[in-house]
Every structure is written in C-alpha cells, then in structure tokens.
Amino acid sequence: MSFEVMLRQLTVGFGQTFLIFILTLVFSLPLGMIVYFGRVSRFRPLSWLVKIYISIMRGTPLMLQLLVWYFGPYYLWGMSIGGYKLTAILLGCSLNYAAYFAEIYRSGIESIPKGQYEAAALLGYSRGQTFFKIVLPQVVKIVLPSVTNEVITLVKDTSLVYSLSYVEMFAVAKQIAAAKTTVLPFFIAGVYYYIFNYAVAWIMERFEKKLDYYR
Amino acid sequence: MKLLEMNHIKKNFDGVPVIKDISLSVKEGEILAIIGPSGSGKSTLLRCATMLETISGGEILYLGKRAAWMENGKPEFPKKEERKEIQSCFGLVFQNFNLFPHFSVLKNVTDAPVKVQKRNKDEVYQEAKILLGKMGLADKADAYPYQLSGGQQQRVSIARALAMKPKMLFFDEPTSALDPELTGEILKVIKGLAAEHMTMVIVTHEMNFAKNVADKIIFMDKGVIAEEGTPEEVFSSDNVRMKEFLGKLSEE
Ligand SMILES: Nc1ncnc2c1ncn2[C@@H]1O[C@H](COP(=O)(O)OP(=O)(O)OP(=O)(O)O)[C@@H](O)[C@H]1O
Ligand SMILES: [Mg+2]
User: Fold this and answer.
1) pLDDT over threshold 90, residue A3
2) Under 8 Å CB-to-CB from B214, ≥6 apart: which residues?
3) What mean pLDDT comes out for the span B36-47?
4) pLDDT confidence of A47, banded at 50, 70, 90?
5) How far apart are CA B181 and CA B37, in angstroms?
6) In chain A, which residues have their Cβ closer than 8 Å to the Cβ of B48?
C-alpha cells in the first residue's frame, strides 16, 4: 500500500472523527444548559434524578457507556442495531459531555455575584432578560477555559468509538497497521489528532480574546 | 403627597428580628438621611423598601399604592404589571455599584430604559449623554466599568438609576467603598441632585454630609428608630445611644 493510499484512507476516517466531534458538541453544549436547569430545579425529584444522571456519566468510563448505548437495546429488546451505530455514538457522547458541561455551567452561574441580580431587579429586567442579557454573557466568559479543556478532551475521546468498531480515523489506522505491519498509520493519525487539537485550541483562544474587552 | 410610606415594618431573619416596627414617610422633594451603628438594620430597611427583601410585618406604599403587605401572615407583592409600575418609582444606588461589567458605560445607563421601559432609543441615548456629562463622565461613555475608578463607577451607577426617571432614589452607603478623595465627588453629585429637589433616602456614615443635605434624619439602633427629626434636633438630642454613637464616630 502506498503512502498516498494510506493517507487517503486515514483522511476519510478523519472525516468521521470530525463528524462525531462536531455533532457531539452541537448536541451537548445546549443540552448541558438544559441539564443544568434540571439540576437546579426546585422540583426535588427532577433535580435528584439529574444529579444521579450526572454522577453516573462522570463516574463511569465513556467507553462503557458507549457499549451500553449500542448493545443495550439489542440485549434488552432484541432491537436490530444495524444502522443504529452513529446514533448510539452520538447519544453516548452527547449525554456524557452534557453532564460535564452542565457542571461547568453551574459553577459559572453560581459565581455571578448576587448584586448583579439585584441591580437587574431594581432596573425592572424580567427573569428571562436578567438571565440572557446580564448573567449568561458573563458566564460564557467565565466558563470558556473549562469548556476549552472539555472540547480538547473530546477530540481525543472520539477515538473511543473504535470500541463499537465504527470506522473513524483511529479504527482505520489500527486496521492498516495490523494488515501491513507498519506503525506509520498510527504516526499519521497522531499528527492528525495533534493538528486538529491545535486548531481547536486556536479557535477557542480567539473566542477568549473576543471576550477580553471587559473584566 | 407622601411618596413613600412604611408602616410598622418588621423584618426577621430566621426568626431573629432585625427591623422591629419601623414607620416612616418621605414626601416629594424631601431628603431623609438614615444613620446608626453597624448592624442596626439600615441596609435591611432599604432592601425592604426597594422590594429586594420580603417584609415580616407592616406595609409599604408608594404614592398610596401598596408595594408590600401581609396577608394571612405571609408577605405579598402586587402582580407583575402593577409591581413594575411601582418599581419604576424608585432607584437604588448600591454601596459596591453593581454595574454590569460586560456593558459599556453608555450601555449600562441606556439598556434598561430601552429594553425595560421601551422608550425611544435615540431619545434615551441623548438623555444618557447629557446625564453622563452632568456626572463628569462625558469622555467615558465607551469605557467599561473595570477601566474606571471607584468614584467614576459610582457616578455611572447613579446615572444608571437616574436614566430610569425615578421619583426617588435610595442610597445605601454610596461612599463607604471609596477612598476619602473619591467620597467628596460622590457627595457633590448627591448635593447637586438635592439642589434639583430629587427625593432621596440616604443611608450614610458621613455625619457632616447628613447634617448639611438632609431635611430629616433618622437614627436607627438595634432595629428601631431611636431618634428622628431635623438635623439640629437629632444632633443635639439627649438620647444616650445617639450620644454614644456620635462620640464613637468623633473618636475615630
Ligand atoms: N440575609 C440575611 N440573613 C440573615 N441575617 C441578616 C441578613 N441580612 C442582614 N442580616 C442581619 O441583620 C442585621 C442588620 O443588618 P444590616 O445589614 O441591615 O445592618 P446595617 O445597619 O446596614 O449595618 P452596616 O452599617 O454595617 O451596613 C445584622 O445583624 C445582620 O447580620
Ligand atoms: Mg448596611
């Protein structure tokens, strides 16, 4: 196998890696906010349930969660799992990351001083306006570094879907390496991951810079 | 006409009484100063008056309309629209400013009039610029709060409150987070408002200022009004606690 063919196959695999990465973020970033609202709900049973959910998501390996999401429906209800793989992956990754994001949001929101809410109340802002105009923009700035950490972890975590033998870059690399007894595909994949993470860090830094206009 | 009436106000925190049956009223154009030792309940009283805190007894009225009262032993506020209307009667200037850090000075001052009061944007901006000019902040409209001194931040927060066109302003120790030099500039601003007959209730530790600017002074001690009257009356009072309080201050 020529280097070019290898590179082409790995690039196709990277496309899948990127797809999982982006979709997981698209789902888990907003979902984390919903989970947060459940977590701080005054309806006790709900906040309790969400707390348990968060603790399971954070307390067990993502790989195990992926296996449960994928094989669970089959073992439990004999559901056919043929075309369901990507769905299971996105479900597993999004729910897992939403739990982490929810906790990050919570610490950010709790760090907004009470005086901000009081000033907003005095000026007549509604609860919705207070949250979206006053609190949330400040929270975004506070949580951005923690979110960046999670996003970079996610880049690497996408390789876990290999456990469901989903064909993304890591799986492709492993396959070629085994067939051709060469370590080169791992090396190329490593470079891909590294560059990808570098780009992610660069983009997140742009965001942080953009919010540098106030303290 | 009485702008604000507080009748037999009580406030407990976890069963501990902090305000014990306080009644006071403020007429239009009147300036009331509230003084008293730390922990006597001055801030709590302002927080009740501005609806940041529920009361445990009594009633609060603005222009004769009930803003807070008791019903079956529980504190009540008026419904949404009426509450909004009553709230627009007053503004509050905090000890630590509480400006919105992610808004520029101009936006801090203009956002609520536009987004809450739904007033005409151009008009609001024009008025805000005049207001900032009056506060000596004409060149700071585009600055962010972190770029300002404490005194400048406090002037922005006064401008923010005034931009809502309230009928009266509450101040809770507006200068106690400031250096002595900066204190003077805030007191000057408040004196300027007094000259324009702004109705104000001011909690302060600046005795000379209270004496000079207030029409009426209330001396609070341990949750009650221990002494009240004109500045002359209060500062020449024979009240033991008042004398102790003034004595302590002059020792400092
Ligand atoms: N949220 C609260 N929960 C419990 N106790 C409170 C609360 N707020 C105030 N208190 C108590 O109420 C009492 C009066 O407090 P307050 O802040 O009104 O005093 P103050 O006269 O404004 O004092 P200072 O001059 O130090 O500002 C204090 O004993 C304080 O501990
Ligand atoms: Mg106080």
Assistant:
1) no
2) B31, B32, B33, B202, B231
3) 96
4) very high
5) 23
6) none
Mean pLDDT of B101-128: 97
- pLDDT-based confidence at A34, cuts 50/70/90? very high
In this structure, what are the phi and psi dihedrals at residue B4, rounded to the nearest 5 degrees? -125, 135
Distance A70 CA to ligand 1 centre (A): 57
Nearest to B215 by CA among B1, B22, B3, B28: B28
SS3 for B5? strand
What is the C-alpha radius of gyration for chain B, rounded to an integer number of angstroms?
A: 18
Is residue A27 within a helix (H) or strand (E), and if so which, with residue range? Answer: helix A3-39
Tell me the one-letter amino acid at A196.
F
Q: Which domains does chain A have, with CATH numbers?
A: 3-210 (1.10.3720.10)
CA of A77 to the centre of ligand 1 (A): 61
Yes or no, beta carbons of A124 and B94 under 8 Å apart = no
Of chain A residues 135-194, which have a CB less than 8 A from chain B? 137-138, 141
Say whether pLDDT at A119 is over 90: yes
Check CB contact of A132 with chain B, cutoff 8 Å: no
- B197 C-beta neighbours (distance < 10 Å), count: 11
Beta sheet of B224-229, edge-to-edge order: B90-93, B168-172, B199-203, B31-35, B216-221, B224-229
Cα A189 to ligand 2 centroid, rounded to whole Å: 62
Find chain B residues with C-beta within 8 A of A124's C-beta. Answer: 84, 87-88, 112, 116-117, 164
List of residues 6+ apart from B30 with CB closer than 8 A: B3, B199, B215, B216
Q: Does A43 touch chain B (CB under 8 A)?
A: no
Burial of A197 (0-12, 13-18, 19+ CB in 10 A): middle
Asked whether the beta carbons of A90 and A65 are under 8 A apart, the reply is no
Q: Cα separation of A66 and A54, whole Å?
A: 16
DSSP bridge partners of B34: B203, B218
Chain A residues near residue B96 by CB distance under 8 angstroms: 115
CB pair distance less than 8 Å for A214 and B146: yes
pLDDT digits (tens, 9 = 90+) for A150-200: 999 999 899 898 888 888 888 889 889 888 888 999 999 999 999 999 999
- With CA atoms as reference, the chain A residue closest to B50 would be A122
